[in-house]
Amino acid sequence: MPPVIRALVRRRRLVASSLVAVAVTCALTVLAPTPPETVRVLAAARDLQSGPLAPGDLTPLALPAEAVPTGVIHPPAAATGKILASPMRKGEPLTDVRLVGPALVAAHPPGTVATPVRIADADAAALLAPGDTIDVLAAGTGWGQDGTATASPAQTVADDVRVITTHKRAATSSANSGGGALIVLATTSAQAAELAAAQSGGRLSITIGPRRRP
Question: Whole domain around residue 95: which residue ranges?
């Protein structure tokens, strides 16, 4: 075969191979899945404890649209200064039910109200976590004939109520807080009234029951 013909044959094979490679690349591009649509949300930048959110506690996170939780908080919404009702793990999206506010009672039966109460024994209150079920007891203080203080037997003023959140009191505010520890309970309006009356006339204590399912 003359050299010129051999060169044409080799070039034709090279062109054919190139065309095949281009066709394969185009086919792979068409068959490749489309990247899923993502939504930017606010998530915990690190493990967080309940309490006020500080700058740097949250970070933007891109989630697939189908994985975005209901009630999620989107940037650039400002969450700094709002109160986190319960601990969060690093990377967990922030939702409205995590913040102290109206959404706290959204998962509870109709008619539920969020009732803040102060427990006299701060160490006992420190054992509580959101979701715990407790009974609240009140013991009033009176005065005997000799002028000494007497304590009346404790009575249950709210039973089988669930802890929504606990609040860790700053040391600088202890002098003005009246002692004890503040917790927020899911109660009925009637229970809230009983608790308010009990707080005004005595000290509140708790017993802790088994945790109920949500």
Answer: 38-100
Instruction: Report pTM.
Output: 0.61
Burial group, residue 195, by CB count within 10 angstroms (0-12, 13-18, 19+):
buried
In the predicted model, is pLDDT for residue 147 greater than 60? no
Of the given ranges (40-44, 64-68, 171-175), which has the lowest mean pLDDT? 171-175
Please check whether residues 178 and 193 belong to one and the same domain.
yes
What are the backbone dihedrals phi and psi of residue 14, each rounded to the nearest 5 degrees, phi first? -65, -45
Structure tokens at 61: 């996170």
Q: How far from chain centre, in Å, is Cα 93?
A: 8
Domain termination residue (choose one: 48, 82, 100)? 100
Inform me whether the pLDDT recorded for 50 exceeds 70: yes
Q: For residue 23, is it within any domain?
A: no
- CA 170/CA 189 separation, integer angstroms: 29
Q: How far is Cα 79 from Cα 99, in angstroms, rounded to an integer?
A: 9
Residue 112 contacts residue 192 (beta carbons within 8 Å): no
What is the C-alpha separation between 203 and 151, in angstroms, rounded?
10
Given a contact cutoff of 8 angstroms between Cβ atoms, the answer to whether 29 and 74 are in contact is no
Chain centroid to Cα 113, Å, comes to 18
